[in-house]
Each structure stands twice: as structure tokens, then as C-alpha cells.
Amino acid sequence: MDKIGITTTVPIEVLLAAGYQPLDLNNLFIANDNYDSYIDLAERDGFPKSSCAWVKGIYGACLEQGIDEVVSVVEGDCSNTKALIEVLNLKGIKVYPFIYPHSHSRSDLKVAIDKFMSDFGVSLTEVEAFRKKLKPIRKLVKEIDELTFKENKVTGFENHLYQVICSDFNGDPNSFKKLLKEKINEIKMREPIEKKLRLGYIGVPPMTTDLYNYVNNFEARFVYNEVQREFAFPRGIEAENIYQQYYDYTYPYGMEFRLAEINQEIQRRDLDGIIHYTQSFCYREIEDIVIKESLDIPILNIRGDKLNSLDSRTKLRLEAFLDMLGDLKEVED
Ligand code: SF4
Asked: What CATH number does residue 234 fall under?
């Protein structure tokens, strides 16, 4: 099976139908013990210090892990990715573009997905067959999410991990399915986690995944991971076709659509506060203005750069924020 790298979530059903093993370059980057060597490689090759660590990491992972074909999102993701494609092309890597149309119109998205299928020489019937195969896996991941916020048996990190893996199913959907079943059996045996504060995490997945364990030191836990949950397509299980599934995906489209989903989850999961993570040098940092204006809940914006662990200043800010949420909760109770 040929490997193909992806720079973000794309209609993976198309790649599987075409006989590829899709690998999310973000996961290859951040899961590597020497993740910083990928950033160093990119900077040695000319990527500016003042550019996003994810883009540099994707580039390094691609080169170091011998990936010679990549799918990249050129609309609905960031302009950094567009420049990344130019450099990958220069290195002899074949890049297939995919777009999530800004218009967020069903007809434009259908054109984009049809073109994607045609680029890989697969039919709608073949793609739908793979969508059907992936549904039981998506259901298991949805179950983990529900065990997180309804039964309080899953940690915030586990919730993050199993949903974020859905961008590429670890390159092996069958093994991932087996792993999920075993994990769910183990989770069901646990006692509920008792913490006073229920937190939501919004924004791109963090470089600093120790965030989840850090808040466990206090009376708080994450019960919602916004973008990671989008990667898992919980609504896609019920979608009538691939077009509907990727139309309902909030992350690549405008803020209004994304905020409506976040608002719904704030109510459904009874959240007390939100951590909005942004990546240094990412255009999404500016979205924090809209998010704070639009959501009626305390929000703390934290920022990551190249390190995969929280710095002491961010830890202090988190502690102060959680203290404040704890006081608020006592007043409300
Ligand atoms: S963090 Fe922002 S700048 Fe970096 S790859 Fe993601 S969207 Fe692009």
C-alpha cells in the first residue's frame, strides 16, 4: 500500500478507496520523540523563525519519513500551507490539492469532492463503500466522547487523542478499531472522575499536550475538544453522503458556522470555561477577538510555539484562570 501524507483532515474515504495508506503529517511530527529536529530541518532549509511550528514540523516529517505524495488543502486552511506546497514541489514531492470552498455552498463543495475523486480515479460508489466501513469506527470514537462528558470516565487527554487520530486512523483503520473496542471496555470499568470545573478546549490541537495533565492538578478537567471532535466527524455518521459529511465539518469554514456548533456544545456539556489555544504566527490568533466577543463564557487564550510543553507563564495564567472559575462557581452554587 502506498503512503500518502495529508497536511490536515481531507476526505480520507477517497484516499482509502484509491488504495493509499493516508498518514497525517501533523501526527507524524508531534508524535516523534525528536519532533524539534523536524522544525530545525525546516529552518535550515529556509523556513523563517517567524512561521508556524506546525508547518515546519509537517515539512520536516514529510522529508524525514520519505513521504513522496501529499494531499494539501489550498482553500479553507491557511496561506502557509500554500507556500509549503511550493517548497514540497521543489523537493520533488507530488502534491494533490484539495479545497474546502470559502462559499461553504453545497454545490461548490460537491465540485471540489468530485474533482478530488477524479484526481484519484475513484467512483462515488467506491468512496461511499469506504465511508460505510469507517462509520463503526466513528461510532466508537463518538462513544468515547460521550463517556467523557456524560459519564465522566475519560480524561481530557484521551478524549483529545482518540478523536485527533481520526484524521488518518493511525494509517490502519482495522487496528484502530480493535484498539478502540479494548479501550472502551477498560473505560467502562472505571469510576467517574470527580472534578468541580468542566472545561472546553477550542482551537487547533495543541503542541503542548501536557495542558491536559496540568489542569488535572486543579479541580478541573476537559470534557470538550472542539477541532479534534470535528476530525472525528460525529455528525458524519448520520450524513446521507460524503458531500453532506464534509459540508457539516465546521473547521475550514467561517467563524459563524463554527461558533454555532461551539455554543451548542457549551450548553450540552455544561461547560464552566474555555481555553482557546492558538499557535504563534497563525492567522487564527486574530479569531480570538471574534471568539471572545461571541461566546458568553469565560475564555482564556493561551499560545504555543515550538515547545511541546507549557511554559511557566502559561501555567501561572492557567492557575489564575481556574481559581477565578472556581470562585465564580461557588458564587453561582
Ligand atoms: S496552526 Fe495556523 S498557521 Fe499553523 S498550520 Fe495550522 S492553520 Fe496554518
From this structure: 3.40.50.11900
| DSSP code at position 246 | H
Report the sign of the C-alpha dihedral through residues 159, 163, 165, 169, in that order: positive
Q: Using CA positions, which residue lies closest to atom 2 of ligand 1?
A: 282
93-127 pLDDT tens trace: 999 999 999 999 999 999 999 999 999 999 999 99
Same domain flag for 108 and 224: no
Q: Are residues 167 and 306 in the same domain?
A: yes
- Residues 49, 185 within the same domain: no
Distance between Cα 278 and ligand 1 center (Å)? 9
Last residue in a domain, options 104, 122, 140: 122
Burial class (CB in 10 A: 0-12, 13-18, 19+), 21: middle
Same domain assignment for residues 95 and 141:
no
Cα 51 to middle of ligand 1, angstroms: 9
- Cβ density class 253-289: b for 16+ within 10 Å, e for less: beeeebbebbeebbeebebbbbbbbbbebbebeebbe
| Residues 149-205: tens digit of each pLDDT | 999 999 999 999 999 999 999 999 999 999 999 999 999 999 999 999 999 999 999
**End residue of a domain, out of 122, 137, 158:** 122
Residues with CB under 6 Å of ligand 1 are 52, 54-55, 78, 80, 204, 279, 282, 284
* In 31-78, alpha helices (H): 35-44, 53-64
Tell me: do 189 and 245 sit in the same domain: yes
Question: Could you give phi then psi for residue 6, rounded to 5 degrees?
Answer: -125, 145
Taking CA atoms only, the protein residue closest to ligand 1 atom 7 is 78
Same structural domain, 135 and 37 = no
Is the pLDDT assigned to residue 136 strictly greater than 90?
A: yes
Residues 219 and 78 in one domain: no
- How many angstroms separate the CA atoms of 166 and 78, rounded? 21
